[in-house]
Write a structure and sequence with these properties.
The complex is a heterodimer. By secondary structure, chain A is mostly helical. Chain A has 11 helices and no strands. Chain B is globular, with a radius of gyration of 24 Å. Classes of the chains: A mainly alpha, B alpha+beta.
Chain lengths: 224, 366
């Protein structure tokens, strides 16, 4: 069992969730209620990682993040190191490829909120920010939870993109799915079986936990 | 917390996307009903007052405080208008209990006092014991009362009610109307009620404002608007059916008796207002100024004979349609008991008297 790979997988899933969620909530809210030019294009771009093969995405990340490219040079200057074959590069790629899994369920949840409930909040004196915090986010909570579950599941299972951009550097980019692949390549089937079972068990646990959280008990919040 | 009650002034004007030509005022403690058919712009006016809709031009003021002024560009957001709005479907926050729905609108009350104030408001609306219930655990009537409590929670300067009885059954509606009538006596702020239900407006309002196609046609006391509409359209919008065309044959002032010609008939009217001899007019005979006449009163010009063509029982009253000739029919309501006693079934010949004091003249349809 490669514990380094296991903790790296968890670390990647955690940071992807933490960094992606605020972005996904803002984007989902904008797409749910905004009326602006280019909305369809943005929706299509958000969905793109869902339809492209991981190797294609990985290829573009590899080219884009490479310090030989203009973009890669700028990114390297910003982050202080080239993004290819680093955890940071894998994390940024992970955030981008997880966009549709995070945005879609949250956008549907926002769309399900009746417009006059938001208006009722405005008329009750709540600022747009308070309305979002006290009314919109609690009502969109099931969608947010679905997004968390999907992002965790998808990050733990991601293989192609991470291999393309990160390779298999222990402690840096070698996540559990890649460690399993390496074990199988080296005919260490027993080790692969243990790690596969661990990934399966953890994924199941994480998603179950998230869905338990989704059934938030309806107790009166007394911090109104 | 309490402040001096202020009157509400609204003047809105725009051509598109929804045509609006609205002028209305509502005094503190007064209940003004905006009445009109679906799509007449009533709800848009209410939303404009609340700050949820921005008209092209116009002015909305609460006392000396300007909430909207199209000329100077003043647009106060809904959060700063201190308006209580009860939505047609109540729009309660589904994830919050009744008391939290109310507490959330009490941002001006300091935190330690908020719960007690919210509980007191719910008790005032007869919701004690239901504080912890969520909207989906309340009946339609209870939801409406939570919505009213939430609207009052802000200590508003104006209370706006958008078809508040549309979403409840008839029995609940009658009870809620009585409750609202009692509640409004304790409120010293302008109350604007939007409704398409004329009976509701008649029963609850101090004044009625008739709106059609985004335009205010007439504002006045319920009986004024009902019995003395300014145009045939306003009459029909107030549910009047006996609107006809005629010609003034003898103009008369308030204490004289005038005459109008209606087809071959000459009718006495109490007075002809601004209309002169020979002028074409539209005239209205309200249902409550039509009565059965004795056969021997045939020499009275206002007694007309006809045949009952339809009887429509409406409970304690029955709506009768009486055909006078090939073209004209009168419709009026009589006590069902009287219909029974007189045996007014369809096909029966009857004599009716149009009371001169009830006949109201208007400019003809253009």
């Amino acid at each position: 069992m490669d514990w380094t790979a296991f903790t790296l997988s968890l670390k990647l899933a955690f940071w992807t969730c933490v960094l992606l969620l605020p972005l996904a909530i803002l984007l989902a809210r904008l797409l749910a209620w905004g009326r602006f030019r280019g909305k369809s294009l943005i929706e299509a771009l958000v969905m793109l990682p869902l339809v492209l093969p991981p190797t294609v995405l990985g290829f573009y990340f590899l080219v884009g993040f490479s310090p030989q490219s203009d973009l890669g040079a700028v990114l390297a200057a910003i982050f202080g190191e080239p993004l290819v074959f680093t955890f940071l590069g894998v994390l940024i790629a992970s955030i981008i490829i997880n966009l549709p899994f995070a945005v879609q369920p949250i956008q549907r949840a926002f769309e399900a909120i009746a417009p006059n409930v938001r208006e009722a909040a405005f008329v009750s004196g709540l600022s747009p920010w308070e309305t979002m915090r006290r009314v919109e986010l609690p009502l969109a909570w099931p969608g947010i939870v679905s997004a968390i579950a999907l992002v965790i599941a998808h990050t733990l299972g991601e293989f192609g993109v991470i291999l393309m951009i990160g390779g298999s550097i222990p402690g840096e980019t070698r996540v559990l799915s890649i460690a399993i692949y390496d074990s199988v390549q080296a005919f260490r089937t027993g080790e692969a079986a243990v790690m596969s079972a661990a990934l399966l068990a953890f994924s199941l646990l994480a998603i179950t936990l998230v869905h338990v959280l989704a059934r938030r008990p309806r107790t009166g919040s007394h911090d109104a | 917390m309490t402040r001096e009650p202020q009157p509400l002034f609204v003047a809105l004007s725009q051509v598109a996307p929804i045509p609006l030509e609205v002028a209305l005022a509502c005094r503190p403690g007064e209940l003004l009903a905006l009445v009109g058919p679906s799509g007449s712009g009533k709800t848009t006016v209410l939303r404009a007052i609340a700050g949820l809709y921005r008209p092209a031009t116009g002015r909305i003021r609460s006392g000396s405080e300007t909430w909207f002024d199209g000329e100077t560009g003043v647009v106060v957001p809904p959060q700063a208008r201190a308006v209580g709005l009860v939505f047609q479907d109540y729009a309660l926050f589904p994830h919050l209990s009744a008391i939290d729905n109310v507490r959330l609108a009490m941002r001006h009350v300091c935190e330690p006092e908020r719960s007690a104030a919210a509980a007191a408001l719910l008790a005032r609306l007869h919701l004690d014991g239901l504080e912890a219930r969520f909207p989906d655990q309340l009946s339609g009537g209870q939801r409406q009362r939570v919505a009213i409590a939430r609207a009052l929670a802000r200590d508003p300067r104006v209370l706006l009610l958008d078809e508040p009885f549309a979403a409840v059954d008839r029995m609940t509606r009658e009870r809620l109307k009585e409750e609202l009538a009692a509640l409004r006596r304790s409120l010293e702020i302008p109350i604007v009620l939007v409704t398409h239900d004329l009976e509701e407006a008649q029963a609850l309002a101090d004044r009625i404002c008739v709106i059609h196609a985004g335009r205010t046609l007439q504002t006045g006391a319920p009986d004024d608007v009902r019995l003395r509409p300014v145009t045939p359209l306003a009459a029909r919008l107030m549910g009047q059916t006996n609107v006809f065309q005629g010609v003034v044959t003898r103009a008369a002032g308030p204490n004289e008796q005038g005459r109008i010609r209606w087809g071959e008939r000459a009718l006495h009217v109490a007075h002809t207002g601004v209309f002169r001899d020979g002028e074409r007019v539209a005239w209205l005979a309200p249902s409550d100024f039509i009565a059965f006449a004795a056969q021997e009163a045939q020499d009275d010009a206002n007694v007309l004979s006809g045949v009952v063509t339809a009887t429509k029982p409406l409970g304690e009253v029955t709506s009768l349609t009486v055909r006078l000739d090939e073209e004209e029919s009168l419709r009026f309501n009589v006590a069902t008991r009287e219909v029974r006693e007189r045996g007014c079934e369809e096909g029966r010949a009857v004599s009716l008297r149009l009371m001169p004091e009830g006949i109201h003249l208007m400019p003809p349809d253009s």
